[in-house]
């Protein structure tokens, strides 16, 4: 009986490992392809490991495409979105959590309701709005449709609710304003939440395809994820180069995830309970 | 009057102002605009004439609309249920491994695709199944099958995009399920071990009923997410072959941006809007019942 269990345990574990390896294989294959020479990529005698590792494709992409421009666009818009989301959501979450004001319940209901609203279904109206503001093909045009985050407001409210009331009352007696209380007590006590929310917001913004795709028409305004589809046209069927560009697009995000794995996981948990 | 303190109310309004402004500008206004636009024959930019329900009548008789609606639901079917089942399976697989390093490595394998931009996912898979040099095609050769145009053959396009979507998104579900499994009291399993329960019985009587709230959450989250399908489909098949993978959001994009029919596109968008709101209300109910438990 006991032995039976250990054999099935080993088998199951092996099976899990094999399944995980199959699962990750496309990613490995893309990475391996990006380090091969173009001639090896289309060689019928292909092999799982590159026969000769070369970074020729990466150099080619960096020198012959506008990838640095796309990187700047991606970095600027992703940072812009992240900073604005935090700056807009945090005070609102604080007000909903700690302050009593007319319309508070209506606002809270409006925040909850907006989680259900699919922004992408409003694409026509949002495009027209951004066009009216003359912001097509600008960083602002990419940023603006992505800065409303009711989920962040709710998460902030939930965490601010848990801060002991005594801290607030003590500083009120000391004559602190609401803004001082928010910045000196509530934000420092919740840095963990802010980093977690900032990380997932940044990842989502960097990865977003839909809004930059809709809001830009010029190549030099593309973000990296949008731009890499246009590299196809420029390069034809050179797969090593396409994979190199894909790896360059995924690299920063994969790095952020691997460094902040725990924080990212935590943030996903926090936001998914209510995220739509 | 005494209920509110004046300086607190003023502070509150200053604090909520940015959010309320953005909310009105980028949510309320576009929603109303889309609704009103859907009753006009407007082009993409600028207002046309008020035509009442004409767009909705046209939509009712538009076979492409019905086709896109059907395709969207077929896609939802192909993704939501397998995604949930595979997610739960992988989560159980990972959480039974006690070695921290090994379970962490396994989780990373499943979760890494989830953090990739969609275009990287589509690029990778276009290379994987490329008719000429794709490694999957080499595999088919090896097994003696004919090569398959995965995105150009009607029978394959939809299931293939669904498969790729599952590969991309299942890591998220695994994460939620692992968290759920952690909350199940291990003593329940120990007790049933002593009673001689089989693994299958343990799953049926302990794991499944106790994980159900998470399963319901994953199902509804997936439902809402996959109803908005556009990116992968547009990038991989462009709606083809012969509109067999044309989905609602892509029809909105096509009518609005490519055919310059803003009014009609808005009418289609309103239908999608309502469907997703219904799905979200469903999810809200599920979450509420979860909190009660």
Compact overview of the structure:
The complex is a heterodimer of chains A (276) and B (293). Chain A has helices at 2-34, 38-41, 56-64, 67-98, 104-115, 123-132, 139-143, 150-161, 165-173, 178-189, 191-207, 210-215, 224-235, 239-259, 261-272.
Give an overview in words.
The complex is a heterodimer of chains A (276) and B (293). Chain A is an all-alpha fold. Helices cover 75% and strands 0% of the residues of chain A. Chain A contains 15 helices and no strands. Chain A is globular and about 75 Å long. Chain B has 293 residues and is mostly helical. Chain B is built from 12 helices and no strands. In chain B, α3 runs antiparallel to α4 (100-111), α3 crosses α7 (154-182) and α9 (199-227) packs antiparallel against α12 (262-292). The longest helix of chain B has 33 residues, at 63-95. Chain B starts with 5 loop residues before the first helix and ends with a helix. The model of chain B has no long low-confidence stretch (mean pLDDT 90). The interface between A and B is large, with 93 and 88 residues.
Please give the CATH architecture of the largest domain in chain A. Answer: Orthogonal Bundle
CATH topology of chain B: MetI-like fold
Structural class of chain A: mainly alpha
In the residues of chain B, how many domains can be counted? 1
At the fourth level of CATH, the homologous superfamily of the largest domain in chain A is MetI-like
The residue ranges of chain B in which pLDDT falls below 50 over 5 or more consecutive positions are none
Q: How many structural units, i.e. domains of chain A?
A: 2
Mean pLDDT across every amino acid position of chain B: 90
Based on CA atoms alone, the radius of gyration of chain A comes out at 24 Å
The N- to C-terminal Cα distance of chain A equals 47 Å
């Amino acid at each position: 009986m006991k032995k039976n269990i250990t054999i099935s345990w080993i088998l199951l574990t092996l099976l899990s490992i094999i399944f995980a390896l199959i699962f990750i294989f496309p990613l490995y294959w893309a990475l391996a392809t990006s380090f091969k020479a173009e001639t090896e990529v289309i060689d019928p005698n292909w092999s799982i490991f590159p026969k000769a590792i070369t970074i020729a494709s990466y150099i080619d992409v960096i020198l012959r495409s506008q990838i640095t421009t796309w990187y700047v666009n991606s970095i600027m818009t992703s940072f812009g979105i992240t900073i604005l989301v935090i700056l807009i959501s945090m005070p609102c979450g604080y007000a909903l959590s700690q302050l009593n004001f007319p319309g508070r319940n209506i606002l809270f209901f409006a925040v909850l309701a907006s989680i259900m609203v699919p922004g992408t279904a409003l694409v026509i109206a949002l495009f027209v709005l951004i066009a009216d503001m003359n912001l097509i093909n600008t960083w602002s045009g990419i940023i603006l449709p992505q800065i409303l985050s009711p989920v962040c407001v709710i998460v902030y409210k939930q965490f601010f609710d848990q801060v002991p009331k005594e801290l607030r009352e003590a500083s009120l007696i000391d004559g602190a304003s609401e803004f001082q209380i928010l910045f000196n007590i509530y934000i420092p006590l919740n840095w963990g939440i802010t980093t977690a929310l900032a990380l997932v917001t940044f990842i989502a913004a960097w990865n977003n395809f839909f809004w930059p795709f809709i809001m830009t028409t010029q190549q030099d305004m593309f973000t990296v994820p949008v731009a890499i589809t246009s590299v196809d046209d420029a390069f034809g069927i050179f797969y090593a180069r396409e994979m190199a560009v894909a790896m360059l697009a995924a690299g920063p995000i994969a790095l952020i995830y691997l460094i902040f794995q725990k924080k990212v996981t935590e943030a996903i948990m926090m936001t998914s309970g209510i995220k739509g | 009057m005494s209920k509110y303190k004046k300086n607190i109310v003023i502070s509150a309004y200053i604090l909520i102002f940015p959010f309320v402004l953005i909310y009105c500008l980028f949510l309320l206004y576009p929603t109303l605009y889309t609704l009103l636009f859907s009753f006009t024959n407007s082009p993409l930019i600028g207002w046309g004439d008020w035509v009442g329900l004409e767009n909705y009548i046209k939509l009712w008789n538009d076979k492409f609309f019905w086709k896109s609606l059907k395709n969207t639901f077929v896609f939802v079917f192909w993704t939501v249920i397998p995604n949930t089942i595979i997610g739960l399976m992988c989560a159980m697989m990972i959480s039974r491994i006690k070695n921290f390093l090994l379970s962490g490595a396994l989780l990373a394998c499943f979760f890494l695709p989830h953090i990739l931009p969609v275009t990287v996912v589509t690029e990778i898979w276009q290379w994987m199944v490329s008719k000429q040099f794709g490694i999957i095609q080499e595999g088919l050769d090896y097994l003696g099958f004919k090569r398959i145009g995965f995105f150009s053959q009607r029978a394959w396009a939809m299931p293939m995009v669904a498969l790729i979507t599952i590969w991309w998104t299942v890591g998220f579900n695994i994460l939620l399920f692992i968290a759920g499994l952690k909350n199940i009291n291990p003593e329940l399993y120990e007790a049933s071990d002593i009673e001689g329960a089989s693994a299958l019985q343990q799953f049926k009587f302990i794991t499944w009923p106790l994980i159900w709230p998470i399963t319901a959450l994953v199902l509804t989250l997936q439902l809402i997410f996959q109803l908005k399908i556009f990116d992968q489909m547009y990038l991989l098949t462009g709606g083809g072959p012969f509109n067999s993978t044309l989905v609602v959001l892509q029809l909105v994009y096509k009518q609005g941006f490519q055919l310059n029919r803003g009014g009609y596109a808005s009418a289609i968008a309103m239908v999608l809007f309502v469907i997703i709101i219904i799905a979200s209300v469903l999810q809200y109910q599920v979450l509420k019942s979860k909190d009660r438990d």
